[in-house]
Write a structure and sequence with these properties.
This is Concanavalin A-like lectin/glucanase. Residues 189-247, 255-311, 319-372 form the MIR domain. It comes from Rhizophagus irregularis. GO terms for molecular function: carbohydrate binding. There is one protein chain. This protein is mainly beta and 373 residues long. The protein has two domains: 9-188, Sandwich (Jelly Rolls); 197-371, Trefoil (Acidic Fibroblast Growth Factor, subunit A), CATH 2.80.10. It is 2% helix and 39% strand. It contains one helix and 25 strands. Strands 1, 2, 4, 9, 10, 11 and 13 form a seven-stranded antiparallel β-sheet that branches. Strand 10 and strand 11 form a beta hairpin. The model has no long low-confidence stretch (mean pLDDT 91).
């Protein structure tokens, strides 16, 4: 009689938990969903620094080259290295399908493997980035094993320095649609609340909203203003972190969720200054594009107020609450709602100019909001 596999999955780590090179979590084979000839693992991962050695993320097997499945990070750049053991080779798979993970940024990673379909697929943030297809399909097979599953350090491989959460083990090969569903799973998304420490990443260029303490000259008797820029695709915990606060003069309760289409403010964690914009009178424009300046200043007033919405090129209507990972647009209230904007225009020091420009419908108005733990 034919055997029918029951689809099962288990969340092994909910987290997030911190991991170092010597840390590991071990799950016995008998405690995992029973696998026949296919499996998937999904997880969320944040790397704190690149290692000079290869780093194990997960490895199932009793020794180094019994490795179905295995996911490592390559040395010095933390690119993905996804492998499995086969009947013709003990080390088969995908090598560096990506350019490497950026530091201090959460990623969703999916590894899917199927012997009947003769393929291994790798996804980052729901996007398919690489695969390995088995040729000679009648004679070549994936070899599964009954060894333990290691998260972090495994056999001769050190673990990674960072954080991991939502490690899920499936006994079937997830479809691309199921990978995307897992990536967007609302149960894994954290709400943004008043008091949250966040970073804003410019979606088009991948650079974070930041400062270098460069002063804008706005004339005499004007409170000192500092230039806001985009600088670097790796998070700078000193210059790129902001706190969500209420609008000027509005009482809020720290810990309450932030509603979309609401007026809020941003306080720079390192300096205590507020994200600000103002009119373009008296030549107060950005140095390159001559658009409306975005600055930081210590004065607390209505120039610090911004409307927050999920990015939508066709409508301003939005409901619900702000969530970690949302793609948003920010609109400056005092100057009739031009949207926070950046592009590839570089300043003299190689940083990226930031301004207020447009109605929020352009790709350059798109920002991803990320909780900083």
């Amino acid at each position: 009689m034919p055997k029918f596999a029951v689809r099962e999955w288990d969340e092994l780590i909910s987290g997030p938990i911190s991991m170092g090179e010597q840390d590991q979590r071990v799950f016995a084979h008998a405690d995992l969903p029973a696998v026949n000839d296919k499996l998937s693992i999904t997880l969320r991962l944040k790397i704190h620094n690149h290692s000079s050695n290869w780093s194990a993320v997960f490895h199932k097997g009793t020794e180094d080259f019994i490795r179905t499945p295995l996911l490592q990070l390559t040395k010095n750049k933390s690119a993905l290295h996804a492998r499995f053991t086969a009947n013709w080779n003990s080390d088969v798979g995908v090598y560096e399908p990506d350019d490497g993970l950026l530091l201090n940024r959460w990623y969703h990673i999916a590894y899917t493997l199927s012997d009947p379909e003769k393929r291994l697929d790798i996804y980052i943030d729901g996007e398919w980035i690489g695969f390995y297809g088995i040729s000679k399909i009648k004679v070549r097979k994936v070899i599964f094993n009954d060894g333990p599953l290691y998260i972090g350090r495994a056999h001769s491989s050190l673990g990674f320095n960072g954080e991991i959460s939502n490690v899920r083990y499936f006994n079937w090969r997830l479809s691309p649609e199921e990978v995307i569903e897992d990536y967007f799973d609302e149960s894994q998304k954290k709400p943004i609340v008043y008091g949250s420490k966040i970073a804003l990443a410019h979606v088009c260029t991948g650079k974070y909203l930041s400062t270098k303490g460069i002063k804008y000259d706005l004339g005499r008797n004007v409170q000192q203003h500092y230039m806001v820029i985009c600088d670097g695709q790796e998070l700078d915990l000193k210059n790129d972190v902001w706190t969500i606060i209420g609008a000027n003069g509005i009482s809020i309760k720290e810990g309450d969720p932030v509603s979309l289409n609401n007026i809020i403010g941003f306080k720079h964690q390192a300096t205590g200054c507020y994200l600000n914009s103002h009119g373009t009178n008296y030549g107060r424009v950005t140095p390159m594009s001559k658009q409306q300046q975005v600055t930081m200043c210590s004065d607390r007033d209505s120039n610090n107020d911004w409307v927050i919405r999920r990015y939508n090129s066709t409508t301003s209507y939005d409901v619900g609450h702000l969530m970690n990972g949302d793609i948003i647009s920010l609109f400056h209230i005092r100057t009739n709602k031009p949207a926070l904007y950046s592009n590839a225009i570089l300043l003299g020091d190689g940083t990226q100019e930031v301004s207020c420009y447009g109605d929020g419908s352009e790709n350059n108005n798109k920002w991803r909001i990320e909780i900083i733990n």
